[in-house]
Amino acid sequence: MMKWIGGATGTCVLCDNNIETRDHLFFSCPFVSEIWAVIAKGIFKDKYSTDWSQLLDHVSNANQTQLESYLSRSAFQATVYTIWGERNGRRHGEEPHSTTLLTTWIDKHIRNKISTIRRMGDRRYDEAYQAWLISRT
């Protein structure tokens, strides 16, 4: 943005501290890393990271179980979507949301996705809801 728009500031609107890059926004920003830790540590376990490239490698890894793959990809997707929305909202003058509220939204989104799949009769993810709840503790 700084190259395209002469007067644009490149400061991260979430932490107001660093230049906003992809790697900073996902997931090095202190604001975002707080959310990511709550959402992802229980799912990613020893593979937990805030490094974009490592995370892409992990969610793309075909050597995970179907359940591990589903939960890690869901956590990644829901967090990226929520953070991008928060970032854009702040850039356009909307009220900022707390890390607690954003974490709650992400958690609820993932629970709703799992519940919807189960209600549609897809039994492949019967253990997903329980696994997600366990990862939250």
From TrEMBL:
InterPro entries: RVT-Znf. Residues 4-36 form the Reverse transcriptase zinc-binding domain. It holds the Pfam family zf-RVT. This is Reverse transcriptase zinc-binding domain-containing protein. It comes from Arabidopsis thaliana (Mouse-ear cress).
